[in-house]
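Encode chain A's predicted structure.
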Amino acid sequence: MIGRGYLDESGRLAGVDLARGLAVVGMVIAHLVAVPAWSWSDPATWSGIVSGRSSILFATLAGVSLALMTGGARPVEGQLLREARFRITARALIVWAFGMLLIATRVPVYVILPAYAVLFLLALPLLPMSRRALLALAGVVAAVVAPLWMLLAELPWRDERAWEPLVVATGLWYPFAVWIAFVAIGIAAGRSDLGRLGVQLGLAAAGAVVALTGYGLGAVAVGLPPEWAQILSASAHSGGIGEIVGSGGFAVAVLGVCLLVCRIRVVGTILLPVRAVGAMPLSAYTAHLLAWALWAWLVLGDSSNLGGFRALQPVVPLLIGIVVGCTLWALTLGRGPLERMLALLSRGAGRLSSRRR
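Encoded structure for chain A:
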């Protein structure tokens, strides 16, 4: 099949693409459908699993990508690491610019790209760290930084209108001081040999245990005084310790399971359309917001009307368009359009840095 080699080329991990594809699909659903609060004991709420967890999975996989870009299980050092940091910085600036353009469409979602760019920059000092140090950092963020962030958010001097430009420019609705924990976990995962069966089984099992621990903590917190219930909450978008631990573990488990199922070639082939979305996440994410803005403007005359747009039931057509479009592009042209441009510009920045040195 024409272009199939891009998705199955040597060094490309089908399971990572699959996990990224699920994250993008989950975010699209969370944007366009009013999903209920998820509860494992109530099947009617299971669609709510996409709320909060999809974006956290996306952030965790950003860490995996950073690790793979800097040597994977054998991290680069010295001059190679410096050049990699320069390329990542260039990528962060370009992704931030994309995010600002998408925010300008007035589509009523919290665009994740500015926060994604900030997380890339914050991750630069983490790249040489060991897996043990990265996991310890994630634990400190969950146990200490997250509660402090909640306290800061409650301070009386906080003026939403005064802070709005900063929030928009940095994507602060995804609190990067807390979300750096997910990137650290992703880098730690990416520093393992993700192609090995034992590593994949370990990620799936360890992630499941951590997820159950976090969500169990959130369940216990329900009966505690309000202050503690908030700090330990596992609810989506709460920023509580339970959510950070639970959803972070969930993301690692999803990565492990995706790597495992893609070991079975026929399954990997069946899931190729989702893998294609995950192979070009920036293009897919951007395309769904631009299509949303255009559709809403043409039909409603207002791209910011969330209720009106959801009433058009756009989720299935948009998902079909994204999946089919990404699949055809990957099979015929290979790398996604925005990913191709991002790689070209960041490589140019890396070469410029090398010549200057």
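The chain has one domain: 4-356.
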